[in-house]
Amino acid sequence: MDAFLDQVLAGLATGGIYASLALALVMIYRATHLVNFAQGEMAMFSTYIAWTLIEAGVAYWQAFFLTVAIAFALGVLIERVIVRPVEQAPVLSVVVVFIGLLVIFNSLAGWIYTYTIKVFPSPFPEEPVRVGIHSFSAHQIGAVGVTLVVLAILYAFFRYTSVGLAMRAAAQNPDSSRLVGIRVAWMLALGWGLAAAIGAIAGMMVAPTVYLDPNMMAGILLYAFAAALVGGIDSPGGAVLGGFLVGVLENLLGAYVIVNEIKLSVALVLIIGVLVVRPSGLFGKIHVTRV
Amino acid sequence: MAALLEVSNLRAAYGSTRVLHGIEFVLEESSITALLGANGAGKTTTLRALCSMVQTSGEIRFDGRRIDGNATEDIVRLGIAHVPDGRGTFVSLSTEENLRLGAYLRKDKRAVKQDFERIYSYFPRLKERRYQQAGTLSGGEQQMLAVSRALMLRPRLLLLDEPSFGLAPLVVREIFDIMRAINQSQKVSILLVEQNAAIALDLADHAYVIETGRVVLSGRADAIKQNDAVRRSYLGY
Amino acid sequence: MTPASPETAPSSVPRKPRVIALASLLLIACALPFVVNNYHTFQLTLVLVYAIALLGLNILTGYTGQISLGHGAFFAIGAYVAAILMDKFGLPYWLTLPVAGIVCLAAGFFFGLPALRLEGLHLALATFALGVSMPQLLKYPRLENWTHSTQGIVIIKPDPPFGLPINQDQWLYFFTLAVALAMFVFGWNLLRGRVGRSLIAIRDQPIAAEAMGVHNALYKSLAFGVSAMYTGIAGALGAIAVQFVAPDSFTIFLSITLFVGIVIGGLASISGAVYGAIFIQFVPNIADQISRAAPWAIYGVFLIGFIYLMPVGVAGAIDITWVRIRRWRKRGRIAI
After folding, report:
1. pTM attached to this predicted model
2. How far apart are CA A215 and CA A225, in angstroms?
3. Of A83, A190, B169, B187, whose CA is between 20 and 30 Å from B140?
4. Which of B72, B88, B105 sits opposite A173 (nearest CB)?
């Protein structure tokens, strides 16, 4: 029983990371109805930027927020310059651009920073936290905490601010949004900026555990996709819930049903399963496509 | 009184299909002007052209300045509120959120709050359903919501596209009464597109009849209403 | 920037020069292994392997419009089938090809069935997931006896038959060339005829196609199957040429490489498969010398660049150039 609980709690910890990246994916999906395949690599690249700042002597939290700001700007820039021209183009063109971005970010990181892994610091204390007979790294708990804080901020942003409302409106109904004066184009760019910022946070939370390396996000991206789909690709709360669910599921299945080595296939099965059986996930809205 | 809106030689096309072939009309400030005509005559397209929602050529002057070619979002900023056909409700958002969006451009929070109160006094049913998802409102309520959203802008010019469509006569009367009240008390100019010529002529001061993309008749609303021959041949009743 | 479809128009290259061009290309292809060294011959063999794989992917993405970011998985399945059959069961190399083909036909068909309901981005996502998880699946401990997990399987290069006076690399090249020709001819017939038109109809106007009696579901799954079969056979050939299979040779980056190949070469184009194959075989070789990251940076830049500037790919650009040349020549004639 204790071992089971251990697995669940460890799953929640990794789930927190999946949840953050899934949030970023949902952010872009809500704004543009597009799935950003390059999200993981953008997050990884942002983490490298943070690393550079820290190496240069900047204090952790200052580097953290500076990186978030830079990532935000990068996201806006990419949307306006590279993605905008293909937003209305056929799906294939969009996928090509996203894969292109994925590959460019990956190789840019490899070229600038080489492929040797780097240590990335954690802002949380070293000593493990003990709950009864279980012990967890403070970082794992901290990472989950950060995810929940980000989620809360996002929720408040979308619910209570006028820009948040405008973004939701622009995503749902661009024509009507223009009729109330919303600059729809900028709302999309904002969505990308937010997603990039959230991705950067996810990257900085995962790097201390898995070490910083250009290929660090590939597997995590898959789990994040699964999480976003399970929760509902247009539901931020669902994405977070999905993240935790996927994390726990991955751990439990890995420990008890299948072998650890093929845990990634859990993500594969989840993705296909959700897409085929219930594409809107647990909390998403069902989209009806007009014939 | 200077004309608030002057449209000359307005042409519009959807892709390669030409719909408007040189529309001309003026709208005086504080007046209610109706654009009438049969289905497919080009009335809705005219309104959409005013908001740059279709490809156009020709001249559109608002307050003396040309606005043809401006982006929709900028035209809205000049004080033109468009209630599109189909209402354009944000169906997944709540009634109140729809109204908040109507006030998106406004900075004066206290006045916005007053406007909320005013709207709810015009349409108590919206107040009852303020937290309800807008898509679940009835047709009449959604029309009220659409008009209210436009009013939250405190527009100078209100464009109404077929507000009576699919609504029960009582509901239509309710909405039109409020339109009249707003026009008289706040001097909001209204450009009304309607298939139902009878009720439109009841409300409007001036009217233009559009047929296959051209204006074929214009005049004072009451004159057209009383002229049996004109009514019968152009408006079919 | 719509990836266009040059295949629906009658080929802009006039018939006689086309036949001459193809024949001379074939002649050059046969002469090459005797002119270049063994390593280059091996590289050319790989170009042919990729060309077959790309034709497979093109059948799916170019003609049917279904996006696959996971075709590396079918390449891997074909490769492993060949390797296991040769290593564990001592099957002769040429026999592994049809087996790999059938296995992948089935795999593709069955993957295509649930994937039927998915469109565009969702299908891209599902196939992406397949591509990412493939290496792990190949390392599945229960299959260790056959796959040797991370260590991989070593294959012995086949000898030329009937005591022909050529070396192993040259024989492998001609064998691959023969298979490639056969598969290209088969594919050409398939796509130029009724099947091809049905696939294009499904891609461009699925509802109309269904209304006209094209069984969308069946065709789409079949397209997946055939596409996987092509890529699987390519994988088998690749395994034989490289003489080694290991899980980490078949990561998501292989799938992305194949995807790059058809975008550069030209979607919905048979000749595009060859251009793309040349690109993905030689660019990394050259770029690797600049830096380890360089090939991928080039892929990325080319992907985005091509979709903006040359969405029809190299094949399409050549087609358009031919049209312009013909028009220019015609104009010349009339002026006289």
Report:
1. 0.83
2. 17
3. B187
4. B88
| Range from A179-188, B209-218, C56-65 carrying the lowest mean pLDDT | C56-65
Put simply, the chain A residues between 272 and 291 with a CB less than 8 A from any chain C CB are 272, 275-276, 279, 291
User: B3-90+155-235: what CATH class?
Assistant: alpha beta
Higher pLDDT, C287 or C336: C287
Give B-chain residues touching A183 at CB under 8 angstroms. 73
Touching subunits for chain B (3+ Cβ pairs under 8 A): A
DSSP letter (8 states) at residue B134: G
Q: Å from A182 to nearest chain B CA?
A: 6
Q: What is the pLDDT of residues C185-233, one digit of tens each?
A: 888 888 777 777 777 777 777 777 777 766 777 778 888 899 999 999 9
Q: Are C303 and A95 inside 8 Å of each other by CB? A: no
Residue pLDDT, tens place only, B131-152 = 999 999 998 899 999 999 999 9
CB–CB of B104 and A182 under 8 A? yes
- pLDDT-derived band at C334, boundaries 50, 70, 90: low
Q: What domains lie within chain A, and their CATH numbers?
A: 2-120+132-277 (1.10.3470)
- Give yes or no for a contact between C244 and C153, defined as CB atoms under 8 angstroms apart: yes
Reported as a single tens digit per residue, the pLDDT across C30-57 is 888 888 888 888 999 999 999 999 999 9
Domains of chain C, with CATH numbers?
A: 15-335 (1.10.3470)
Phi, psi (5° rounding) for residue C291? -170, 165
- ipTM of the prediction: 0.90
- The pair phi, psi for residue C38, each rounded to 5°, is -60, -40
Residues of chain B found within 8 Å of residue A162, distances taken between Cβ atoms:
100, 104
Buried b (16+ CB within 10 A) or exposed e, B29-41: ebbbbbbbbbeeb
pLDDT of residue A267: 80
Q: How far is A22 from chain C (nearest CA, A)?
A: 14
The DSSP annotation for chain A comes to -HHHHHHHHHHHHHHHHHHHHHHHHHHHHHHHS---TTHHHHHHHHHHHHHHHHHTT--HHHHHHHHHHHHHHHHHHHIIIIIGGGTTS-HHHHHHHHHHHHHHHHHHHHHHH-SS-B----SS-SSPEEETTEEE-HHHHHHHHHHHHHHHHHHHHHHH-HHHHHHHHHHH-HHHHHHTT--HHHHHHHHHHHHHHHHHHHHHHHHHHH-B-TTTTHHHHHHHHHHHHHH-TT-HHHHHHHHHHHHHHHHHIIIIIS-GGGTHHHHHHHHHHHHHH-TTTTTPPPPPPP-
How far, CA to CA in Å, does A72 sit from each of A6, A78, A89, C1, C234?
Answer: 36, 10, 25, 28, 43
Joined tokens for residue A223: 């789990």
Instruction: List chain B residues with CB under 8 Å of A172.
Output: 90-93
